[in-house]
Design brief:
By secondary structure, the chain is an alpha+beta fold. It is built from five helices and eight strands. Strand 7 and strand 8 form a beta hairpin.
Length: about 230
């Protein structure tokens, strides 16, 4: 006796495949969202640790740390991994756009060439004002608890330009650690019409600059105030 074999029709197979595809897409979206939320939570924890470590350093030493790496070598920050944002695909975005003063050479406001020393080069993701000139650091410090001391911009829009790394590569959401230990979320967008070819903003709301001439070379220092302060004229 001949047996009848039941099988899926082509329409049924295509329907099943479509349903599996939709479910897989929904699952991937949920996983991606969960990863982003996890990365942001870890990043905020890192920023809070950096804020507490720097405050303890300033209280004990009555001066700022040379750089973020020095906080770990002096054991104010026990875990070097706290310097890395889990969303940092470069494993050192801060090193690219906010280099350690160990290798920073500039002309100060008296026209004399100065090389900062004492920094500890370790990978870090966060932009910070520790390598800034004294006048800029003092100006930021006057904001007190509202002063930003570490910023992550890697949760915003953009991607790293490894040929010309700049804080201008990202805009949108930033996470900022402040002197009072709070970590706040802000949004910063750059007005491209205010940029010159050097990538330095000429708008007062974007940066404050000083220039000095020494040995026939003019150097302009720019600081991204909008990342570290809500005050347009700190």
């Amino acid at each position: 006796m001949k047996q009848n074999r039941k099988a899926f029709t082509l329409v049924e197979l295509l329907t099943v495949i479509a349903i599996i595809g939709v479910l897989a897409s929904l699952m991937m979206t949920a996983v991606t969202s969960a990863n982003k939320a996890s990365h942001r939570a870890r990043c905020m924890s890192n920023l809070r640790q950096i804020s507490l470590a720097l405050n303890m350093y300033v209280d004990d030493c009555e001066k700022r740390s040379p750089d973020l790496g020095h906080l770990t070598s002096s054991r104010y920050l026990g875990n070097r991994q706290a310097l890395l944002c889990p969303s940092d695909k470069t494993s050192g975005w801060g090193n690219l756009v906010n280099p350690s003063p160990l290798t920073t050479t500039y002309f100060n406001t008296d026209g004399l060439q100065t090389t900062n020393t004492g920094g500890v080069q370790v990978p870090f993701s966060y932009l910070n004002p520790l390598p800034w000139e004294n006048w800029a650091w003092d100006r930021l410090a006057k904001l007190g608890s509202r002063a930003g001391i570490a910023v992550c911009q890697l949760h915003g829009l953009g991607k790293p330009n490894l040929e010309n790394p700049s804080y201008l590569n990202y805009q949108g959401v930033i996470l900022r650690a402040q002197r009072d230990g709070a970590v706040v979320q802000k949004e910063v967008y750059w007005d491209k019409s205010t940029f010159v070819d050097t990538g330095v903003s000429t708008a007062a709301s974007d940066s404050v600059t000083s220039s000095a001439t020494g040995n026939g070379t003019t150097v302009v220092f720019a600081y991204p105030w909008r990342l570290f302060s809500d005050d347009l004229n700190p």
